[in-house]
Amino acid sequence: MLSRRNFILGLLTSNLIFNQNSIVTGHQKTTNSGATKQYNGSKDILIIVDVQNDFCPGGSLPVKNGDKVVEVINEIQKSFQYIALTQDWHPKDHSSFSTTNPDIDVFSTKKMPYGNQVIWPPHCIIGSKGAEFHKNLITNKASFIIRKGFRKNIDSYSGFFENDRVTSTGLDGILKELNIKRVFVVGLALDFCVQYTAIDSASLGYKTFVIKNATLPVNIGNSVQETIKNFKKYNVGYGKLEEFI
Ligand SMILES: [Zn+2]
User: Which residues are identified as catalytic?
Assistant: First the structure.
């Protein structure tokens, strides 16, 4: 059996970045009756999905008003002890890029060995400005960063599994080690990486919520309607943070 030390060492040598400065605090919640109760979120984690330059206005795959979620997410971070960031992180010849598939229309789908894959404009290329987090996003409260999509032949929307739905990013192992029971998901984009992260989280047994005012969609075809339908199907809560804590 893997010892705790070896488990952590294993993570450190994989695609994860840990921050030793995680701050652990509770916060006061005011109830409708005016009484305050201490919210102890020791079993909760906030997962901030892909708030990167390329997904914001001016980037190569912008979500309309994508930068507007940054301040909301910064405020929400104050309520959490545990925070994780995901970061889309692609080689420049990634198999999902339109430049790698010149005969296929951008935003159409291509059959890959692991299923249908949307063909995207090149984005979040490893080490590029576009792959950096938005400059106003507070990132120093996060305990760790999950990088995804760095294998050339497979894309990864979810923070938990790559698009073959089998290859793990390691996130589930960390959450189990931390004894996390509830997962709150925010970020970009609602109808792709946020949706897949939330559905995987719920499928893995975490009580899962997507915070509605802290995410926005890229909106391709009926992707938003499908996302809302899937949240109901997988029992993912979708509303404001105050409704869930
Ligand atoms: Zn991507």
Answer: 50, 148, 193
Domains held by the chain: number: 1
With respect to residue 226, please indicate whether it lies within any of the assigned structural domains: yes
Residues, CB within 5 angstroms of ligand 1 (ion)? 88, 149
The domain of 74 spans 13-21+42-89+124-243
User: 165-190 pLDDT, tens per residue?
Assistant: 999 999 999 999 999 999 999 999 99
Residue 37 lies in a domain: no
pLDDT 10s digits, 13-56: 445 555 444 433 344 444 455 544 556 678 999 999 999 999 99
Residue 177 C-alpha to ligand 1 middle, in angstroms? 27
Q: Where are the beta strands (DSSP E) in the chain?
A: 16-18, 27-30, 36-39, 44-49, 82-88, 109-112, 115-118, 144-148, 182-188, 207-216, 237-239
